[in-house]
Amino acid sequence: MPTPEFRWSDYEVRVPLTSPLRGFAARLRPPAAADEPVITIPLPDLTAWQSPLDKAKILLESAAEIEHALLVQYLYAAYSLKSADEVSDPAQQDVLDFDNNPASWTRILLGIAREEMGHLITVQNLLQALGLPPHFEREDFPPRKDLYPFTLHLEPLSQHSLAKYVVAEAPVDAAGIDDIISVAQGPAAAHINHVGVLYGLLGVVFAGPEQIQEGETSDDSWDAFVSHLAIAVSQQDPQAARDSWHLPDSAFEVSNPEQQAEPSDWQEPQAGGQGPQDQAAGVQVHRVTDRATARAAIREIAVQGEGPAGAGEQSHFDRFRRIYRGDADTPAFPAGDWIPTRNVSTDPRVTDIVDQHTRRWAELADLRYGILLGLTEHYLLTSGDDRKLLTAWIFAEMRSRVAYIARQLTTMPTGVGDGVASIPFTLPAPLHLPGAETARWALHKQHIEASIAKVQEMQAASSSDQADPYLSGLLTSDQARLAFITAHTIPATYSTSFSRDIQPLFRPVDADHMLFHNLNLKSHDKVKDRADEILTRLNGTEEPVMPPPPDQRWTKAQIDLFDRWRTENFPD
């Protein structure tokens, strides 16, 4: 279940005049005089969590909920944008040109969402390093807790929502964004809770008492932020022992490091690179084995997104700000001159959709979202060869299932006015997997059976869905998964399958693109005949590479799976 709500309290703290906490405090409260040594800063009250492990648990679970919420929110904003062929102005077409412009708004949003996925997975590694279970909870939209920087919503991209993203991801020393803060707060001057404070507090908890000092790492801003936060939180319970805020060395006796997410499973080769060893920057998943790797992971997440230090063009803040401001080559985000989004609703629910054909697609979208979450948690609860299969299924869900269906929904009527539908991102029940391995696979089986039943219902109710090749391919893939789970309790080794493992890795857009190259990616025999060529293009060692830039490349795990299918003599 979601974490308990924090109580936020104000603390007065004496810090140097150069402290990064000053900018942070000024953004949240009326600024003190420039030469005033004492500032007021709001912090979550953690006195109810007395041990450092308790504090680490509540902070990590809260961070996981925030990352999950930001992930789906940014995905929703990306899916809300129109395609380039829906506008006529060349500059507008360019910023919406997903297919050809790596700097299109859609690609920027999807890139940031992908990095939020990396943050979410890294937080799971941090939990597991302390012997704690994975945590994939989040609040429904809008959230009830006073935890997020603003009241978050699943909403189309707008100047107001974009301003919220800029401020939520801003480093404490960000200058020249007062106008963006004003738009983000709105007429009611909504209160801001900066997400970065949670990562700063994690920096305190994961450090030893002797490591809370400036100059501890190469990042002066981060070191000062953590050091001065430690001064502030010491006021929460002055009578408590000093080490109640710092995890002991014994907390990092990692018993099952092999169950943590492997970074290479989540990274992609660079477009134009020479092979899977050329990993894309930005998708940061950290394996945590001791205090040093834990602290590095926390700082890296903070620098890239939610913390006090910016990371230049790699930071979420900078990319969101560039969309908002525009530059010499691209327009600023519209303040009302034109509408770049489709007419999707805010905080949608399946029950709000009147059109029955569209509702069935939305129900399918939620089923696939639930399958994705279940597979990802299972990946973190197991090790060995099972992971190869789970990795393939996870990426098929992310790219060929959830993303594709979500985008299709924005072309379908809700049956209410002229609005179009959107993915509700409804959390499944139950959310977490059972403890026993066989019970986990049994739950996956139930979810896949539900998806099969939904697709069959869709095909029976609609002639267009009956003829839809995507739904037919999805049904074939799910039936192959179901047969595999029914026949096996996932043995130590397993044979790959084209219909179950390989064909789902090719997105519909990949299939359409390769038809122009006389290659039918939906055909086992065609893919088999050109498997060597496909593998070299996936590796980037032959032009044109697959998928072509600026699309995301396959991960090493996906490429290895395709190569394994090839060496196993192309099983159906």
Can you describe what's shown?
The protein folds into two domains: 18-233 and 290-325, Ferritin, CATH 1.20.1260; 357-567, Up-down Bundle (Ferritin). It has 572 residues and is mainly alpha-helical. 45% of the residues are buried. The protein is globular, with a radius of gyration of 24 Å. The chain contains 20 helices and two strands. Helix 2 (52-80) runs antiparallel to helix 4 (105-129), helix 4 runs antiparallel to helix 9 and helix 7 crosses helix 8 (220-233). Residues 271-282 have low confidence and may be disordered. A two-stranded antiparallel sheet has the order 1-2.
What percent of residues are in strands? under 5%
CATH fold name of the largest domain, please? Answer: Ferritin
The largest pleated sheet is described as: 2 strands, antiparallel
The first-level CATH class name of the largest domain: Mainly Alpha
The residue-averaged pLDDT reads 87
Low-confidence stretches: 271-282
Q: What coarse outline follows from CA principal-axis ratios?
A: globular
Elements, N to C (H/E): EHEHHHHHHHHHHHHHHHHHHH
Q: Kindly state the percentage of residues in helix.
A: 40-55%
Rounded to the nearest angstrom, the radius of gyration is 24 Å
* Strand segment tally: 2
Task: List its salient traits.
572 residues; mainly alpha; Ferritin; 2 domains; two-stranded antiparallel sheet; globular
